[in-house]
Amino acid sequence: MEEFENIAEQYTPLIHHMIKRLNIYKDKEEFIQIGLIALWEASRAFDPAKGQFMSYAFLTIKGRMLSHIQKTNKIHHRETSKEIEMERANQDDELILTLEWLIPKAFLDTLTSNQSCWLTHHIQYGKTTAEIAADLHITVASVKSWKRTTIKKLQAYYRLHPESF
């Protein structure tokens, strides 16, 4: 155990250098711990016949830190996407209620959530396709597709039920 404590003391500047090099400014203590664990693993797995310990420790620490960054970014992206999706669903529900006085509920029930989203943002707020895409963090082509299919459905519904409007 004393042997690792000496190694940890000697290579702690390397861990701090790696944190600085990777531009890590949040959760530094967590990355110090990741670096120390990686250093311990490197000290256990090191084979002197294959090269210098400094190089092996450097690559091991860097690899563990990059893996952790990648994993946390993936989780953050997944959580953010879910939050945006939930927010959009809540907005859609509120906006559909305001559209029911203008468009028959039977027609609104045939729309997908994306089509309802386009219809409500366009009619309720008068937003353009580009504005809707920017608000929802999606491509303009996606919103254009929603618009196209919604208009086709609306035309077909009107042909079948002109008295509803």
Q: How would you describe the overall organization of this protein?
A:
- By secondary structure, this protein is mostly helical.
- It folds into 2 domains: 77 residues, Rna Polymerase Sigma Factor, Chain: A (Orthogonal Bundle), CATH 1.10.1740; 65 residues, Winged helix-like DNA-binding domain superfamily/Winged helix DNA-binding domain (Arc Repressor Mutant, subunit A), CATH 1.10.10.
- The chain is built from 7 helices and no strands.
- It is rod-shaped.
- The termini are far apart.
Tally of strands: 0
Percent in helix? over 70%
Q: Write down the domain tally.
A: 2
Q: How far is the first residue's CA from the last residue's CA?
A: 81 Å
Q: Topology as H/E string?
A: HHHHHHH
Question: Layout of SSEs?
Answer:
Elements: H1 2-21, H2 28-45, H3 53-99, H4 105-108, H5 113-125, H6 129-136, H7 140-160
Could you name the key traits of this structure?
165 residues, Arc Repressor Mutant, subunit A, 2 domains, rod-shaped, mainly alpha, 7 helices, Rna Polymerase Sigma Factor, Chain: A
In short:
It contains seven helices and no strands. With 165 residues, the protein is mostly helical.
